[in-house]
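Practice problem 4.
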């Protein structure tokens, strides 16, 4: 099995235009890439090692919405970019119709590590609660795979579909990953993970993806997770402990019941590290003996921080929770739009249960 492959259709270096169709420039960095026929703006960027804002990569979360400074884009037949402001596009779905300039201040002039596809060996698969499995995987070191805290990776299934899982460990360049996979009722891959995945199994993976990474600002931070949304937050906590301590950070982790907070001991240890790191568990359906906070997790945040104008929020997990948090924090509690970072765990059919 090939251990290292870049994306099948990477962005074409600007100097080699032989197979190129249109040129994409990311402003203000001035990064210019040639876009292969049929490729989206985001695919082109990722294939060349640049990471504009994105999350779901399938037109649902709007994290990749960006202004089109010049030129025009089109979308695949049947896709309607609903709710996209005039003059903007969803880069994960948009195909340039000619040369385009996209505003993406987060794109730096120098590319990072490219997306790679590789075989990953399962090192362990441990059921840590009634529905969560912690999976540790090893990508061969020579595959060139690495990631930043907060990013995710895809697993490629035999039918050509893929699923995304956030890394929960701190990146160390060794090619190891830890995923927290919640088994969904009749969920194809997550049920397989819970019931059958075992050490030495092989998975085909591709990554890293995502832009849910800690900014370089010095504002105090709210980390907000529901369910396995804790995974990328744990990676941020482990990787950026010093920075979070300097900025001041509070982790709010919501579940329905106590057993949903499957790594509560780890979160409590993080809280105990320093006075400026705090952990607040929140349950929406607690047992009678629960001593902690109850209700919806994003409501606990605004109860404690009614003025969020000087903060940054990193929210991850159930899409309903992420949407409710964004709307409440930005519309009612003065959080600037650009200070809300999120990864919504969008599934084939979004979990209809209430956000916790
Ligand atoms: C950026 C990102 C990061 C993510 N990170 C994580 C993570 O760290 N941990 C994690 O647990 N998840 C994560 N997810 C979600 C994950 O990618 C999968 O979507 C999830 O595990 C479900 O996959 P599955 O194959 O088990 O379920 P699927 O088979 O895809 O089904 C999903 C749900 O839809 C239902 N369903 C499917 N088809 C139908 C239908 N036709 N009618 C009605 N219901 C249907 C299923 O019963 C199931 O409940 C992430 C998602 C994204 C986008
Ligand atoms: S809509 Fe483009 S990344 Fe989600």
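Answer key:
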């Amino acid at each position: 099995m090939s251990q290292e492959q870049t994306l099948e259709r990477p962005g074409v270096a600007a100097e080699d235009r032989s197979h190129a169709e249109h040129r994409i420039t990311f402003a203000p960095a001035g990064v210019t890439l040639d876009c292969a026929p049929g490729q989206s703006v985001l695919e082109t960027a990722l294939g060349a090692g640049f990471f504009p804002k994105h999350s779901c990569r399938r037109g649902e979360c709007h994290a990749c919405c960006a202004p089109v400074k010049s030129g025009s884009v089109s979308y695949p037949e049947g896709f309607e970019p609903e709710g996209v402001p005039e003059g903007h596009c969803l880069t994960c779905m948009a195909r340039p119709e000619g040369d385009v300039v996209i505003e993406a201040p987060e794109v730096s002039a120098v590319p990072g590590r490219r997306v790679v596809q590789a075989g990953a060996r399962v090192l362990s698969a441990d059921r840590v609660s009634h529905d969560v499995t912690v999976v540790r995987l090893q990508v061969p070191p020579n595959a060139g795979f690495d990631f930043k805290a907060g990013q995710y990776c895809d697993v490629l299934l035999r039918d050509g579909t893929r699923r995304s899982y956030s890394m929960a460990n701190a990146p160390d360049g060794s090619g190891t990953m830890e995923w927290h996979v919640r088994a969904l009722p009749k969920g194809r891959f997550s049920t397989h993970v819970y019931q059958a995945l075992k050490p030495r199994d092989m998975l085909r993976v591709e990554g890293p993806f995502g832009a849910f990474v800690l900014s370089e600002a010095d504002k105090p931070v709210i980390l907000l997770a529901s369910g396995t949304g804790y995974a990328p937050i744990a990676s941020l906590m482990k990787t950026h402990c010093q920075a979070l301590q300097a900025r001041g950070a509070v982790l709010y982790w919501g579940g329905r019941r106590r057993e949903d907070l499957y790594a509560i001991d780890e979160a409590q240890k993080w809280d105990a590290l320093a006075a400026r790191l705090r952990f607040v568990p929140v349950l929406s359906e607690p047992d009678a003996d629960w001593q902690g906070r109850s209700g919806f997790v994003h409501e606990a945040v605004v109860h404690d921080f009614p003025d969020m104008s000087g903060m940054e929020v990193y929210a991850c997990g159930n899409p309903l929770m992420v949407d409710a948090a964004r709307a409440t924090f930005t519309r009612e509690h003065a959080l600037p739009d650009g200070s809300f970072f999120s990864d919504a765990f969008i599934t084939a059919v979004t979990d209809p249960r209430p956000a916790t």
